[in-house]
Amino acid sequence: MKKGEIYRHVTEWFEQTMPDPKTELQYKSPYELLVAVILSAQCTDARVNLITPALFEAFPDAETMAAASVDEIKEYIKSVTYPNNKSKLLKGMAETLTEKYGGEVPSSIDELTKLPGVGRKTANVILSVVFGQAAMAVDTHVFRVSERIGLTTGSRTPLETEKALTQGFDKDKLARAHHWLILHGRYMCKARRPLCLECGLKEVCRYYRNGGKN
Questions:
Q1: Does residue 146 contact residue 214 with C-beta atoms inside 8 Å?
Q2: pLDDT at 137
Q3: Is 96:114 a contact under the CB 8 Å cutoff?
């Protein structure tokens, strides 16, 4: 099957089974989503959602978080992974957001990646979820699922995967495709024990056709 046919099949299947995918992170503003995505690095969304209500009550905007100490922030996030580093990144992000952008989350990847703790993946999440831009954030799920299915071939880096997916999916589908692949990887195409026999994509999936090998 040619690459374009795989993309069409995958798109059609997801549109039927997951027509309105959304991030599982809970947020009420661009600032809150930015904080949540920074916290979610190498941590589950479920864990992040447990600690953010109290965090956002204490620091409802960038200004209040910028005014807090690293230790004060850490007290609210100590149950997530790498709390020492993330508390420093959150304070730095909030300070930069306050000083350079008036507390408002910017809408370009160049500006977003100037914020401490914000790499390309995090920036693309904000662009697609908050601003509805055609951006593809590549995390471990997207990287793995794309290669297994055959949407990418031999991608060595998240950037290579991002470029391939951006070219492969229709532009108006790209933001949803990000969530499709993440959720599929989280609940179906798991890293260690993918549920291949239950998967509706197995007929086009390279991993399944190859007997569980990429």
A1: no
A2: 95
A3: yes
| Token reading at 121 | 């993946």
Q: Give residue 1's pLDDT band: very low, low, confident or very high (50, 70, 90).
A: confident
Which pLDDT tens digit goes with each residue over 81-110? 999 999 999 999 999 999 999 999 999 999
Distance CA 49, CA 43 (A): 11
Residues designated as active site:
121, 139
The letter for the amino acid at 183 is L
* Burial class, 182, CB count within 10 angstroms (exposed 0-12 / middle 13-18 / buried 19+): buried
HSE-up of residue 132 (Cα within 13 Å, Cβ side): 1
- In order, the DSSP letters of 89-107 are HHHHHHHHHHHHHTTPPPS
pTM of the predicted model, to two decimals?
Answer: 0.91
Residue-by-residue DSSP string for 123-176: HHHHHHHTT--S-----HHHHHHHHHHTSSSS--SHHHHHHHHHHHS-GGGHHH
